[in-house]
Amino acid sequence: MTAAGPINILKPVPCLILDNEDDEFLLGDDVLKALGIDIERQLELLATPSGDDGDDEEEVPEMSAGDNDAEAIRQAVEAMIQRALDEGFPVDKVERLRTIVYAHDVWRLVLGDDPPAKVEPMRIRMKTSCRPYKAKARKYAPEYQAFLESFNALLVKLGWRGGGEFRQTVDYKPFNAQTEPMAGLMPNLHVDLENVRSSNHFGLFDFIKGYWQLPLAKECQELLSYMTHRKIYTPKRVPQGSADAALYFQPTIERCFAALLYKHLLVWIDDLLLYAADINAYLDKLQEMLELTAKFGFKLSVAKSCVYKQEVKWCGKVINGEGVKHDAERIQALRSMPYPTNAGELQQFLCSTNWMRDSIVDYARLARPLQDTLDKVMATASRRTKHAATGIPIALTVQECAAYDAVKQTLADAATLAFPKPDAEMVLLTDASDIGWSVIVTQVSSWKSDADIQDQQHELLICLGGTRPAPTVVVKRVTLRRQRDDDPSGGPTTTSSGRPPVRPSSDGNLVWPTVEELQKAQQRHIVDRPQGLTRSHVGLLCSGERIWIPAPESSLVQRLLVIAHCGAQGHRGREALMNVVNRRFLIRNLPPMVKTFLGGCLMCQHVKGGKVVMRPWTETFRCNERNGALHWDYLHLGESFGAMQYLLVLKDDATHFCELVPCAVPTAAVTAEAILDWQSRYGVPRVWISDQGTHFKNQVVAERMNRDIVQVLRAMCLEAKVDIRDWVHFVPVVQSNLNHTPVPSLASKAPVELFCVLPAASPLDFGFNSEDNTFLEMGTTSRQIEAKLALLRARVQEMHKRVQVARSEQTRRNQKAQRGARVANFDVGDYVLRSRVDQKHNDKLLVTWIGPYQIVGTDEHSFRVQHLVTGAESDVHASRLKFYADASFEVTEEIREHVAAQGIVLTVAELKEHRWNSAKRCYEILVGWKGLEPIEDSWESLSSLYKDIPVMVKQYVAATNEVQLHVTLEQL
């Protein structure tokens, strides 16, 4: 099987089998000729110059070393300035631009014999187990030999040569496998491009053969030597292809241009993007950038650079001040691709489109059939490389062809990604199922409160999605959901699944650092030591009297923090810990280490923070349908001139329409009769909600109306100068007042308008002529009546829609008013601490937060928690709980002992006997505890038991005949 398809060899041929990692066959000239392949003829055709060398970079005319003369560069710079004028550069500022670009010798047409850049050379670290690798000499065609000889001769003389038919590549894969990779991070362009927001002036600059401008450390040059057919060459500059080249190049350039980075400059390897909001600032930053370029000895390609554009194409994206979109030429090239015939072509198509998926909605679902096909055919391959995939033929089905066309169509609809605006409303839209998930983030510059969310003017920020739930996705969701209650920033934090020790200072595994261990730690990081250190009398590197501790020695730093924070140090706060450590040790980046350490200290969570965690208001039950939910509650109004003392309040959830029923006693019979009367007039509500019971478990919607009723009744009785016991006669007036008064929460509509579709009565109606009122003619035929009713329903629905928006706005304003509150988002199985705030009597020395407890159930407003020792369960409001650990926390005997040491609230089963304790000089009673074995009975002092269970103690003492015990109890 070959990339072109299967071939058949008609007769057996001898083979030589060699140990090699590649799964390839090398065929001799006789076998190739038997297959109809003439290698010599192919080489003749290859040697013939062609107009296309397959290079996707901008074509640069081949120039000799003499082309870097001043006149050639001057002509190229003038051409660059002219291109800037063609792009809209202001004519009145062209002389200043010309002065800036000519101020420094930084422009080159080809790389000549300039010295390397003035930066720290690249150093390579080899693995401890590496062995020298000897390359084998390869055979080359005569044309290749001639190219290698001339090319490497120029490398020795000048350093590089542009153009030509061939390119030299060095196979560094065996060497890279034995290299210790350099730690580094490439920029996140999606995030960094936000800095370009509102910029209208851009410049693009390209280092000429950027890697070759950087020096290679002398001790590492021999490691990167390479062999041609005649010689071995040793580079003195950084060659592209070595393992550390990119991660060395990027931070080196960032350090050189740090003054401009992320403010007016973005860097991606050897491509620079300069930007500014106005032309004067742009010219100032251009001058500063060229000064830094000259200072560090870099050379820019005058042919590939552009000093001015109003919209640029950088890293495959089209960028302007309004947003980022993908290159139209790249999109058109992808859309013109035919159906793939092998797995390599399909893999290339998916990789290319996946790079653009952040601006393509629903990409994951559309590409799913193609990805499944690729995974299926690549399952039999030894590697997932493009070379291996190219040899696997495929034929797409009708469904797969439809998916291929659908993905190409979405490329044409790819949206422009806007830059986040600080004053815009950000909208997060999420969806998930058992087969996939999606997240879309947009922004709305001008939010319209009277429009639905789909009618707002959205600008796309990013869209993400996937078709398979993966562990990495789950981790991200947990990170976003988890929120530590003691973190004032309220930011997302991750939780460790392991169990740190509760008392690390007394843990048997804690090893105290020694002088020898400190010396070894310093020696391992001797190259990263700070400046100005001196040796102490014991051989330790110190800064003054402080011992230097390398920050990467995380285990050593962790143990030092344990010693300085736990045990006798009493778990003091952050500043106390910082001061203790800084007095004795010098540790870089200590504050974030201390913050992480304190965040994981399980003991601190019991004593830090207030007694109650502020929680936001819960999401109240909402019903947007008329007569969809009915609330009722009893309001006690006191005595009247009759038997009536209570008022039953019935209220519709959506429209606030109410009915008031006076009654003598609040019984179920009265409630049932009132609800039946409601149903006979308006129909059966689907949801019934009683406002009786503990309020943090029950809705309190009717309570809000009760306040209005009491307020209105007080005012009416006072204004009418009647006795307050005459309140029964005012009930119909109050009901009318509540139902006919427009309120802001209903979009300035009255409840009777929304519920009964009747006009609201007003005391101001006397000023209008009732004869001028118009009436709705319903018609005479059934069709006319149905049409009028349909119109009436549509208008009612539109009115309810406006009310729904108004209520949502009110909820949003309420939530803004309590931003300091933190959302409780515990899961069943999580471990939490419980506050002692509700205990009436407790010792001041007891910890504020006890536990941990495990959550075994959730309610709308509370959580059901279980004690880890007794197993007792209780309902606790979220404000009395704070997060301790997730469900993976391991409960050991140490944890149970830790919980028991805090004091357990147990129920007394019986008081068995008493005694006089002469040592403590007090009476003690033997207590039998409910849920515990008799062997666990304990002697408790009479005074402490009397505080907690006075009734049982009195009953026990009354049943005894000991006079002194009676006297002691009376003295308490």
UniProtKB/TrEMBL annotation:
Residues 52-61 have a biased composition (Acidic residues). Residues 899-956 form the Chromo domain. PANTHER family: POL PROTEIN, RIBONUCLEASE H. The keyword DNA damage does not apply. InterPro entries: Chromo-like_dom_sf, Chromo/chromo_shadow_dom, DNA/RNA_pol_sf, Integrase_cat-core, Rev_trsase/Diguanyl_cyclase, RNaseH-like_sf, RNaseH_sf, RT_dom. CDD domains: CD_CSD (cd00024), RT_LTR (cd01647). Residues 46-65, 480-510 are annotated as: Disordered. Pfam families: RVT_1. GO terms for molecular function: nucleic acid binding. Residues 136-319 form the Reverse transcriptase domain. It comes from Phytophthora fragariaefolia. Residues 782-809 form a coiled coil. This is Unnamed protein product. Keywords: Coiled coil. GO terms for biological process: DNA integration. Residues 612-711 form the Integrase catalytic domain.
